[in-house]
Specification:
The chain contains eight helices and 24 strands.
Length: 502
């Protein structure tokens, strides 16, 4: 860096500028009058006034040492997957080597290289300009001579408007003009569909070798081949699919590879459609009555697509109180009809604060296990139990539950929190009132049951980071456990409530 000394004269007035200007005007007036009258020695008076004004301006001699700072050239290397195929990675390295040689011959040029990989955030794609903004913020705009992009041209964050500082941007493209590639795109696909009914997936094939013609697509559903179809290139095409079962229906689509194609990774696409039933048949079994019992019932009854059968176990068969059977107003629990004859007619079984009594013998509990393994759903909502009572963990159903409670009640004020898995899981992702930063405006709960996770996925946590909502797959079915009986506080709107319905 060259150092160039420079002498400068700088004025540091001892009085306000307005005062000095006024004195200067008076001096000029007196000088003009003296010249007009030809007064003797007028020039000495003028010289004295001028020296006085110069002293008031307080001139100073300053010597400055200036250094010439080099300009910076930013080289951005695209190291995404698309820029590594067909020797593009080596081509990028060769271009960088040639740039380094040429920049080394230029005076006052400083080089910086920025390597950008595949974007790991939710938006996906190659984010070159975001990386430039983040990693080159310390380079003054006045010293940024140029930005050179070495890329295949697949950039997904190109700014709409030009840089207001007009920094030159040069793009060096890898690859060749004769390269061809085919891409299968999912234009639109439904997230849900009724079991047994058809849905439509809209696909589009881009072919750089031809804007017309046709392409063959093979489709597999849940790992099994279903059909091969031929569709036109460059057009949106509807493909009908049938939802075979409840839960995730996975469709894999693959377009045939063409000769000379760069890569066939983008010839494949996967679509997941969750199968739902037209009417949800729910069996709700309540143990000890509590404030949430009516909330569960009202919520399920309010949905016209739900067929609800609800029983509350208030009087176990072994209870002896000498009351004649004909005088009892309680309805007998139809255990054989529900858990043997018509169990498979239900889609979901909910145990709400259930405690083990002799109402449901072991063979009926085993039927529930088989019901889940064949595709049914089970929800266990735990709560405090009377001393000596046994919970659902103490039955054969406990073998398919992902977590085990110990009947120990943890009390304290807390707000249910989504785990990292819960932020992405379709059951809890996107719940209203919960931000990506982990903050929510949900209301407080005040107790939960201590538990130990054995398997499955924890979607929500509570006090002391204990599991609050746990889910797991068992066979073809699903199991969920809620280790608190206070979700009714959200339904009642306590302390802003929460996403009870969702």
């Amino acid at each position: 860096m060259a150092q160039n000394p420079e002498l400068l004269i700088e004025f540091l007035p001892a009085m306000p500028a307005s005062v000095i200007l006024t004195l200067g005007a008076v001096t000029l007036s007196l000088m003009g009058f003296a010249i007009f009258k030809q007064s003797r020695g007028w020039y000495w008076r003028v010289l004295a006034m001028a020296l006085m004004l110069l002293m008031l301006l307080n001139p100073a001699l300053i010597e400055e040492m200036r250094e010439t700072k080099p300009d910076t050239v930013l080289i951005v290397m695209d190291q995404s997957t698309s820029n590594q195929i067909n020797k593009r990675g080596q081509e990028s390295i060769n271009i960088e080597t040639q740039l380094n040689e040429k920049l080394a011959q230029m005076p006052n040029i400083e080089k910086r290289v920025l390597y950008v990989n595949d974007n790991a955030d939710d938006q996906g794609g190659t984010m070159l300009f975001s990386a430039i903004q983040k990693n080159a913020a310390d380079i003054p705009k006045s010293h940024l001579a140029a930005i050179i992009l070495i890329t295949d041209g697949q950039v997904h964050d190109v700014p709409v408007s030009r840089d207001p500082d007009n920094v030159p941007i040069h793009v060096l493209l890898t690859g060749g003009p004769d390269e061809i590639d085919r891409r299968l795109k999912i234009v639109r696909a439904p997230g849900f569909g009724l079991v047994g009914q058809q849905q439509k997936i809209i696909v589009h094939i881009e072919d750089s070798a031809a804007s017309e013609g046709s392409a063959s697509i093979s489709m597999r559903q849940d790992g099994e081949a279903t059909q091969n179809i031929v569709i036109p290139v460059g057009q949106d095409v509807e493909i009908p699919v049938t939802i075979q079962h409840a839960g995730a229906n996975i469709f894999e689509l693959s377009a045939a590879k063409i000769t000379g194609e760069l890569a066939d990774e983008n010839n494949h696409a996967v679509v997941t459609i969750n199968g739902v039933r037209d009417r949800l048949r729910v069996l709700l079994i309540s143990g000890d009555p509590h404030a949430g019992t009516r909330v569960w019932r009202n919520f399920l009854k309010s949905d016209p697509s739900v067929d609800l059968v609800h029983f509350t176990i208030l009087r176990p068969p072994e209870k002896q109180d000498n009351v004649p059977t004909e005088e009892l107003s309680l309805i007998a629990f139809p255990t054989k009809e529900l858990f043997e004859d018509k169990l498979n007619d239900f889609n979901l079984i909910i145990f709400d604060r259930y405690r083990r009594l002799s109402v449901l013998p072991t063979e009926y509990m085993q039927n529930i296990v088989q019901f889940v393994e064949r595709g049914g759903a089970l929800l266990d909502a735990e709560g405090p139990l009377p001393d000596g009572s046994l919970s659902l963990f103490d039955t054969v159903v406990g073998g398919i539950l992902p977590a085990v409670g110990n009947n120990k009640v943890i009390e304290g004020e807390f707000v249910p929190t989504l785990s990292e898995d819960g932020k992405r899981h379709p059951v809890t992702a996107g719940l209203p009132g919960y931000s990506k930063s982990g903050h929510s405006n949900w209301g407080h709960w005040f107790r939960q049951i201590e538990s130990e996770q054995r398997r499955g996925t924890v979607l929500m946590t509570g006090l002391n980071n204990e599991p609050l909502l746990v889910m797991d797959r068992v066979g073809q079915g699903r199991v969920a456990q809620l280790f608190s009986d206070q979700i009714w506080l959200w339904a009642r709107g306590y302390n802003n409530g929460g996403p009870h319905s969702e």
